């Protein structure tokens, strides 16, 4: 069975190839020989898969944190404005929190009203 991290390792490997091609072009020198994924030593593939998995894990954690913030935004908005609100009001509340603006003021009301 194929390792589920392999696609991530292939992405890392491609970034390495692209980087080396850029370096070679800038320095007007022959590029460092990097073999295709299938020809790489298993330890080299393992390293790329670990790097790819670490980056994916970080990105997943960041996305989960963003989702948690949106969930909290909705909960806070509903607590402030009440459960029975229009979709537009809910969207405005989410926008206000994500823009780090105080809840309870619509964009059209401006900053002068408390």
Structure description:
- With 114 residues, this protein is mostly helical.
- It has one domain.
- It has 3 helices and no strands.
- It has helices at residues 6-27, 42-81, 87-98.
- It is elongated.
Summarize the structure.
The chain has helices at residues 6-27, 42-81, 87-98. With 114 residues, the chain is mainly α.
Q: What's the SSE blueprint?
A:
Layout: H1 6-27, H2 42-81, H3 87-98
Helix pairs in contact: 1-2, 2-3
Taken in chain order, the helices and strands follow as HHH
Low-confidence stretches: 110-114
Structural class: mainly alpha
Over the alpha carbons, how many angstroms does the gyration radius reach? 24 Å
Overall mean confidence score, pLDDT: 81
> Count of helical segments?
3
The proportion of residues in beta strands is: under 5%
Q: How many distinct folded domains?
A: 1
Which descriptor suits the 3D outline?
elongated
Percent helix, as a range, is 55-70%
Distance between the termini: 61 Å
The main pleated sheet reads as: none
**Care to count the β-strands?**
0
Question: What does the oligomeric state look like here?
Answer: single chain
